TrEMBL record:
Belongs to the GHMP kinase family. IspE subfamily. ATP binds at P104, V105, A106, S107, G108, I109, G110, G111, G112, S113, A114. Catalyzes the phosphorylation of the position 2 hydroxy group of 4-diphosphocytidyl-2C-methyl-D-erythritol. It is an enzyme of class 2 (transferase). Residues 221-280 form the GHMP kinase C-terminal domain. Residues 72-153 form the GHMP kinase N-terminal domain. It comes from the Bacteria. The gene is ispE. It catalyses: 4-CDP-2-C-methyl-D-erythritol + ATP = 4-CDP-2-C-methyl-D-erythritol 2-phosphate + ADP + H(+). Its EC number is 2.7.1.148. The active site is at K13, D146. This is 4-diphosphocytidyl-2-C-methyl-D-erythritol kinase. Keywords: ATP-binding, Isoprene biosynthesis, Kinase, Nucleotide-binding, Transferase.
Length: 297
């Protein structure tokens, strides 16, 4: 076990496209989604301690402080990973975990799932043990359908309920603006409002590796099947999209089940200008410029 603190980022997850293509008998929806991650996100600091502790800071920390700790995914990840190691006879000392909560809660960009994934990555380093890839994947899946993709933390194609992951090494980076009207959205509520569960799958992915124009064209022809029901539930999602479309964005869409919308830009300067305009129009909203990650071959 290391005696040093471990700092682990929890990047925002962005569903660049999300097609709902069916539903399993157990109620889980089947999907195909092109997912990337952004430099903007939460941050975890994990340190050896005499007893387990958990602390919060950041703009959105008060929302988590009001919740029952038993529902916190970071603590669930800590406990699940510890149980797995203890079951193998491996020591897991007490740990102080501090979560810097920079992303809105229940916002469609994987905040809680990204935090849980960061805890799994960081605690393996802190405790000096590692689970086999398949065992870690299954542990992450038990925490939530989005946790395995957040554990990967790289551009990917997700299928099934989000647990079948294929790397997208040629997906380029994009300048991006994230906008959230600070209205929490319940994912189950959005799926309940989804009237059509068997939609067309994604088109074949672009063949031109790393070419931004080709990917933008392909993404523009895709969709997020959860966007329409989310707009019906939270009208500000539609307003956010309209405001972004005024700012010369190459593409605008909602991520996940909302309410965060994103805009992709071909130039960082355009993204900064758009963010400034959004801040001026809606100073009470969450507005963040960022850069998405490029795939790595």
């Amino acid at each position: 076990m290391t005696t040093d603190s471990i700092i682990e980022p929890a990047p925002a997850k962005i569903n660049l496209a999300l097609h709902v293509i069916g539903q399993r008998p157990d109620g889980y929806h089947l999907m195909e989604s092109v997912v990337t991650f952004a430099a903007a996100g939460d941050r975890l600091v994990m340190s050896p301690a005499a007893t387990d502790r958990f602390g919060l800071s950041g703009r959105f920390a008060p929302l988590l402080q009001a919740e029952d700790p038993a529902t916190n995914l970071v603590l669930k990840a800590r406990d699940a990973l510890r149980a797995a190691f203890v079951g193998k006879g491996l020591p897991t000392a007490a740990v102080d975990i501090h979560l810097e909560k920079n992303l809105p809660v229940a916002s469609g960009i994987g905040g809680g799932s990204a935090d849980a994934a960061a805890a799994l990555r960081g605690l393996q380093r802190l405790w000096g043990h590692a689970l086999a890839a398949e065992e870690l994947h299954m542990l992450a899946l038990k925490l939530g359908a989005d946790v395995p993709m957040c554990l990967a933390g790289r551009p990917l194609l997700a299928r099934g309920i989000g647990d079948e992951i294929e790397s997208l090494p040629h997906l380029p980076a994009f300048s991006c603006v994230l906008v959230n009207p600070l209205k929490a959205v319940s994912t189950p509520a959005i799926f309940k409002l989804l009237t059509e569960k068997n939609n067309a799958p994604l088109a074949p992915l672009p063949s031109s590796a790393g070419r931004t124009a080709g990917w933008l064209s392909w993404l523009s022809s895709a969709r997020n099947d959860l966007e329409a029901p989310a707009k019906n539930l939270v009208g500000e999602i539609g307003e956010a999209g309209k405001l972004l479309l005024r700012e010369n964005a190459a593409m605008v869409r909602m991520s996940g089940s909302g309410a965060t919308c994103f805009a992709l830009f071909t130039d960082p300067g355009l993204a900064e200008k758009a963010a400034a305009a959004l801040h001026a129009a809606r100073p009470d909203w969450y507005v963040q410029t960022t850069e998405t990650f490029a795939g790595t071959v």
